[in-house]
Design a protein that fits this description.
alpha+beta, Aminopeptidase, 6 helices
Length: 151
């Protein structure tokens, strides 16, 4: 699968609207930390936090079509990864191919030693995905915790 990664273009309104649409998809919301509908105003705050982050979001392209997004957030000196696949392209192994490629290109794309992930326990597909590439740390009442050593 020939996936192309590009850093987000913050001035591309059409792309930002697509990402907001993906984020408000019912399945995406179900497995997100925040299950609420994200308004345009809240999304602008989220985008401003991405701009302040040490790692810009990465758009995943397949045949020049936006099919997914990696996001990165910092909390307590840890970098957390998120992945959101365009609902029209789910169940096509894009998440798996994209995560594998991201790991292969990690030094070019990510300026950190470790990446962490929190996956809701009921999100079985994401658990399978992260089990394939990340190291399982622990679980709590709501999440499974993973990390990837970049070195």
């Amino acid at each position: 699968m020939n996936l192309i990664f590009k850093k987000i273009e913050y001035n591309n309104e059409e792309l930002l609207n697509k990402i907001l649409e993906w984020r408000n998809d019912e399945i995406t919301r179900k497995f997100s930390n925040n299950t609420n509908i994200i308004t345009k105003e809240i999304f602008e705050i989220i985008i401003s936090k991405y701009k302040e982050s040490t790692i810009d979001p990465i758009i995943i392209y397949l045949n020049n079509i936006e099919v997914g997004l990696f996001t990165f957030s910092k909390s307590n000196d840890k970098i957390f990864i998120g992945i959101n696949i365009n609902p029209d392209y789910r169940n096509k192994k894009i998440g798996s191919f994209a995560l594998k490629k991201l790991i292969e290109m990690k030094k070019e794309l990510i300026n950190t030693d470790k990446i962490f992930a929190l996956v809701k326990k009921e999100n079985i597909l994401s658990i399978k995905l992260f089990n394939n590439f990340f190291i399982f740390l622990q679980e709590d009442n709501e999440f499974k915790h993973y990390y990837l050593d970049i070195n």
